[in-house]
Amino acid sequence: PAKSEPFILDLRLTIAELLNTKFGKYLSDHPFFALVLLVFGVIASVPIGLFLVFAVVTFVAVTVFFVFVESKLGV
After folding, report:
1. Quick one: DSSP state of residue 75?
2. Rounded distance, CA 40 to CA 44, Å?
3. Angle at Cα 49 formed by Cα 42 and Cα 14, nearest 5°?
4. Tell me, what DSSP letter sits at residue 20?
5. Which of 11, 16, 34, 35 could form a disulfide with 27 if both were Cys (CB 3.0 to 4.6 A apart)?
6. What is d(CA 15, CA 65) in angstroms, rounded to the nearest whole number?
7. Which has the closest alpha carbon to 52: 42, 64, 62, 60?
8. Residue 29 and residue 22: Cα distance in Å, rounded?
9. What is the pTM of this model?
């Protein structure tokens, strides 16, 4: 627990700095809009995450195929 305390403290300072900005004060005054923005951000990140997973899996599959199949051909 002692190692995570500086991270939590730093995160709290970052959140406090955000809430002290003009945008942060607006979100504090309009909690429904803040919730909508949060939900939209989470939902919008799902397709991006799926695409990145697809790209990594494809890259790994092609690399493994190339290493094993091409090495058996003796090229």
Report:
1. -
2. 6
3. 50
4. T
5. 34
6. 46
7. 60
8. 11
9. 0.56
* pLDDT of 68 over the 70 cut: yes
Q: What angle do the packed helices 31-73 and 22-29 form, to 10 degrees?
A: 110
Q: Which amino acid is at 2?
A: A
Per-residue pLDDT tens over the stretch 13-37: 788 888 898 988 998 999 999 999 9
Whether the pLDDT of residue 1 is over 60: the answer is: no
pLDDT computed for residue 4 by the predictor? 57
Distance between CA 59 and CA 26 in Å, rounded? 43
Q: 10, 37, 45: which is closest to 28 by C-alpha?
A: 37
Nearest of 69, 70, 35, 8 to residue 27 by alpha carbon: 35
Amino acid letter for position 62 = V
∠ CA 6-17-26, nearest 5°, is 140
